[in-house]
Amino acid sequence: MKTPENDLIRKILGKSSRSNEFKSGLRLGIGDDAALFAPRSGYETILTCDWFLEEIHFLRDRHPADSVGWKCLARAASDIAAMGGTPRCFLQSLAIPNELTGRWLTDFLTGLRRASRKLKCPIAGGDTTRQNRVLINVTVVGEVRSGRALVRSGAKPGDIIYVSGRLGEAEMGLAALRATRGKIRLNDPKLRKHLYPEPRLALGQWLADHRLATGAMDLSDGLSTDLPRLCASSKVGATIDESKLASAAVEHHSVPKWNNRLALALNAGDDYELLFAVAPRDAHKIPATYRGLKLTAIGEMSRSRGIKLLHPNGKTSPLKAAGWDPFRNA
Amino acid sequence: MKTPENDLIRKILGKSSRSNEFKSGLRLGIGDDAALFAPRSGYETILTCDWFLEEIHFLRDRHPADSVGWKCLARAASDIAAMGGTPRCFLQSLAIPNELTGRWLTDFLTGLRRASRKLKCPIAGGDTTRQNRVLINVTVVGEVRSGRALVRSGAKPGDIIYVSGRLGEAEMGLAALRATRGKIRLNDPKLRKHLYPEPRLALGQWLADHRLATGAMDLSDGLSTDLPRLCASSKVGATIDESKLASAAVEHHSVPKWNNRLALALNAGDDYELLFAVAPRDAHKIPATYRGLKLTAIGEMSRSRGIKLLHPNGKTSPLKAAGWDPFRNA
Fold it and tell me: What ipTM does the predicted assembly reach?
């Protein structure tokens, strides 16, 4: 790690040093050239990194700084959840404008530290520099018992497709945030889900421990964009049952129109729920809720490639990817 | 990893997939939610990340794209060298403008892949998105035998301070690059060192294997900025002998004036040489060159804090940090 800004590093270190109380395997964190991490015997290391950029992933004038801090770590940790792993530590690269090194940075670090404690994932190092916009990159290091990782490539035709939680909630939360004038009120669970998402670590670990998922990933860009990726990795197609999907969507009282709820469930991003496939013989082991988190069967994998939507009238139509893609949406 | 740009990912994957021929411990790379890495028993994992940003770390209209690709990985791997480790794999986060996804990206990936092969460090994953400037963040994962890592904190008063290579060469290379009109001629070794730095991995591993360095780091921001960091970690001061330092500076025929060479050796950045301390009883084990790389004793650690320069007339003066700091230089 290059550490050109000693004062910034001290600020980050001061806010985060107590997080080293976690038994994380970290032997040497911020302040040396690199971090040292003692891997556990019998485990594989999971590595993932994610951008979190002003104007693309958050809005400086809308998103509270502590939400930016929370979310940049939580969404990267969601990839660890998608692998069925446990986060162990993270590296954070931060570029910020000079004028944000005061209150904004303090609030950002408060949110980051809160996520770090909640996820039991201490900071191990990073790099800081200056830019006129906030740029964040987070690398999370996790662990999973050797051979138990959930991957995208094992789903078979006939496997049942599940999603966790309620799809579209985070996008509804974003809409609520955009509509807010003045102080943000966090009593709206959709707003909380958008600002402070919780990676589905317990669910991922349970699926991995019990070898229940033949293929899995997290939903970050919207089901219609992410499901084709899962299918491509597994070399299968899929049919999604609209009626079942609607019951996995944001609640009826929030969005009364069926079509709108369906569109949200298909295309809204940022939910960080898990999408996973289960062999038919194991489907009875999947409960309706896992630790309070709704699990919904929404369709099944098929031999014929392509993703189809099964309409309530019994007809099918091809599903178009309409989720988040910064290059396509440009 | 979020992978919103399937086409970009395919391009990166296509250019890099053969790098998986390295025996790297990688079980699953690009294309899943995260990478899986099998750590070796008896080794610690080294984690480091580095920004490489347009306008701050490179100039799009000056630096060839393949140099940007090489250097973003090489300089991150330099932190692994500073720990005495071996790089095993890397994650790359890339944000680029739409107009660079053609030839520029191809050349960038050529340079990145060349560095990846040279350093035996295959790509394990990453994240891509769109920005109007090129933003790069590289995380390198390395390994070192447990307990053998070179750290910054072990130097003692009386330890001899060494540097590898010739300091100031990379900054001379940058000056040559800025002065170049038209095609870049790589027969100038200083230009090569600026564009295609080689992390001092063999030296770092040798120092770690033989437990020779009591403290070590790599020189990225200039000796006058980096040495105080080494001293602070080790809770010591240092005295640098100007005459000895001058002999570790860029060659006489390149910069005839002694003062200018000294200023380059003290303050020039981007050299990615190693700075290390050796106990006096081990100093006889440090050769004048290691595998063709010059090693120079430039001073010693002291009990009294602060960094002093010993002038040829026998007087000393305090050394001011004048290396690279984007916040101070703003």
Answer: 0.89
